[in-house]
Design a protein that fits this description.
alpha/beta, D-Maltodextrin-Binding Protein, domain 2, 2 domains, five-stranded mixed beta sheet, 13 helices, 44% helix
Length: 268
């Protein structure tokens, strides 16, 4: 059976999907037609229903939960791993709001945007960028501040940029729950048996990555956009954890709370 599979080039995704993609584990009769894209475009593809199995932002899951099933394995969810609101010059949230300053976000349908709204609902002047273009936009003065995700949280200080607010820390302080960032979904129309089998393959792929970390590194490096090895490994360590093997009760409760927050904000 052919499955249209989409995930990002980020190290956490290529690390988790390597064993599945390269058939290091038993994937049965499944063949994967792979699309690699940034999270902005993956979210859009899921909303359009273009993929059978796809990595999305948890906010996007809120939009498509009537058509996609959330898999128990493969999520990016954890502690101290949330998006950061940063700026070039020392800047307060009050100044941003009072002056209606433009803020870069990695997409309106990202969890990062949801968490920005959760922290500061009066920030409304938002401009969409592909995530790796946000720091250059701040440095060049195109925007006053921006919400960064992925490996940028490890490199922004070296660029002289300043932290305004750790949005994940704010979420954890307010809710006491881990931060749901990215989800793996399968189309509901595939049927319960196929979804269950894909979920098991995903779990085994993550487990293999944990037990054979060196095997995935060539695939990770191939798509890491010249990322420093230490940053790449820190990225994986931050976003791939026990919740990636199974959401469990704490993870599912965190997802439920995030979706409720999004609903109360009128996002979906």
């Amino acid at each position: 059976m052919n499955i249209r599979l989409g995930f990002s080039t980020c190290p956490n995704d290529t690390f988790m999907f390597d064993a599945m993609v390269h058939r290091r584990i038993d994937v049965g009769n499944y063949q994967f037609d792979i699309t690699l894209a940034d999270i902005f475009h993956l979210n859009q593809m899921a909303i359009q229903g273009e993929l059978d199995m796809v990595k999305v932002s948890y906010q996007t899951y809120g939009h498509v939960q009537d058509r996609y099933h959330l898999l128990d394995a493969g999520s990016a969810l954890g502690h101290n791993c949330g998006p950061l609101l940063i700026s070039k010059d020392k800047l307060s949230v009050e100044e941003i709001i009072e002056n209606n300053l433009p803020i870069a976000i990695p997409g309106h349908n990202t969890t990062a945007n949801l968490l920005l709204g959760y922290f500061a609902p009066r920030i409304t002047n938002k401009k969409e960028f592909i995530f790796h273009d946000i720091m250059p936009a701040i440095l060049e003065g195109e925007v006053a501040a921006g919400v960064i995700i992925h490996e940028n949280r490890f490199t922004y200080q070296a660029q002289g940029l300043k932290l305004i607010q750790d949005l994940g820390e704010y979420w954890e302080t307010k809710t006491g729950k881990p931060i749901p960032l990215g989800a793996i979904l399968a189309k509901s129309s595939l049927g319960a048996q196929t979804i269950s089998e894909l979920e098991q393959i995903m779990k085994e792929s993550v487990a293999f990555a944990f037990s054979h970390p060196d095997d995935s590194m060539p695939y990770v490096r191939e798509h890491a956009q010249e990322m420093d090895d230490e940053v790449m490994k820190a990225h994986i360590a931050l976003y791939v954890n026990e919740y990636s093997l199974s959401l469990g009760k704490p993870g599912r409760e965190a997802v439920k709370e995030l979706l409720q927050a999004g609903e109360s904000m009128g996002l979906f």
